[in-house]
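Lab notebook page, bench 4
Experiment: in silico fold of construct C2
Operator: M.H.
Input chain length: 404 residues
Purpose: comparison with the prior construct
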Amino acid sequence: MYRVLMLVLALTFVPAVVTAQQPCTTDAQHVVNELYRHMLERQADPGSAHWVQQLDSGRMTVREVVSAIATSDEYMQRFVRTEAGEATPYERSVARLYRHILGRQPDPDGQRAFAQLAQRDGPHAVVERIVNSREYNEQFGDWGAPGSGGIVFCATAGRSQRSAQTGAAAPRRFRGMDRNNDGVISRSEWRGSDRSFDVHDWNNDGVLSGRELDPGSARSGRTVEDMEFDRDEEFDFLDVNNNGRIEPREWHGSVPAFDRLDVNNDNGLSRAEFTGVGGGARARVVPTTGTRVIVDARERWVDTGLSVERGDVMAFDASGQVRLSDDRNDVAGPAGALSGRRAAQAPLPSNLAGALIGRIANVEFAAGNQSSIRAPASGRLYLGVNDDHLPDNEGHFEVFVSVR
């Protein structure tokens, strides 16, 4: 039994070692030839010299060449289209992308999901998602050539340094949109909303370029209003390695902003944490049952209509965003001011300004977001905003309250 087990382990382990030790090639033309053969299903022509030059100069990785070929006009015209008889439009195109990029047939769930993505955001979004997937990263990384039988392009010192700076799984953002491969993304190439494009176009020059495309860059002076675009769309763009969370290397805002969003302090942003900042009903992950209360930021106390007994468990599921002064950046979510400031004359001066708070009888307490606490007293439950001056406030929290 022991020898059988060792044989199984050997058969499992040895191929991985052989693959890891396989020498790389410095022949960029050979790599490009293999990509043309496998992806475009034809021999390379003189136009392939462009990709050879990009690889030799270190300006592009093999992964980026794969993405550029798969989003090229030729590829789109020859291999991507809706066809009669498809259960879901684009499902056959997705199958071809799987074969040309991952070297396998798609699983039914993945094929259906990517076909729906192609309908919603266009085929380029599918390419971007596949080449940045965990599966692609594990099989090919930045330098492996799909469909080549294991060919890996050698990363010189300059190329290795570039990969280290950008991260193996996090090259320049939105690269799948750069259809003409000129290093910038124009408004016509952008797949999101106009508002989303304007948010990313920091210098208002009409294109996304330079540090606007760097995963780790933060915009100077970025305001809360700048984040009022389709957050679900933005989450998908930022989640470069497609693992369902935004990691620090994928984040393009400031470190304090990341930390404020990271509610559970696990050094990553879930979709719920990221989309919940903007407030509104759509930001709530799971619809909550209970009494719905609108807490106006200009009212000191709002009657919930609920009476509780001391020791009752009260659960608060709050969403929304309020402004605490005439300064448009002075805003707060249910947990408090995004700036971290406090208000000396607020009902709870030691808590963050703007936080959701409660009162029962004469006892005031912090409620926050999705808190479950025991009633400190018996009586009517009131909710409010922890601020010292209410007339210049704006907005409201939507709170679902349940008592047990």
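Observations: The chain has three domains: 20-171, 185-278, 291-403. Confidence is low (pLDDT under 50) at residues 1-21, 157-171, 215-230, 277-289.
Next step: discuss at group meeting.
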